[in-house]
Amino acid sequence: MTIDEKTRSILTDKLKFTSEQVHKLENNAGLLARTLNLLSMARRSTQQPEIRKFVQVQLTRIKQTLDTSPYVNNRLLLKARAEYYTFQRS
């Protein structure tokens, strides 16, 4: 799912997401939905500092999750598994 330009600019300019993180976010529907919900929560509660702090912490966790994604080298892992199991059958 692609992110519209307004949301993309908010993520990259204000929240300091990198372009790689935004790309990974587009490919992960669960994290994308969570991020968009947090952004709408922050827009609705401009006067409540507790909610703003909660949103900041959650967005930081999302950024960390995107940086430590276990599927970074997914193709390499699939190739290694295929070679291993092919070798075992021989």
SSE arrangement:
Elements: H1 5-14, H2 19-27, H3 29-44, H4 49-67, H5 74-89
Helix pairs in contact: 3-4
Q: Give a quick account of the main beta sheet: strands, pairing sense, barrel closure.
A: none
β-strand percent reads: under 5%
Average of the residue pLDDT scores: 84
**Rg calc:** 18 Å
Descriptive notes:
With 90 residues, the chain is an all-alpha fold. 78% of the residues lie in helices and 0% in strands. The protein has five helices and no strands. It has helices at residues 5-14, 19-27, 29-44, 49-67, 74-89. It is elongated.
Give the gist of this structure.
This protein is mainly α and 90 residues long. It has five helices and no strands. The radius of gyration is 18 Å and the shape is elongated.
List keywords for this structure.
single chain; mainly alpha; 0% strand; 90 residues; elongated
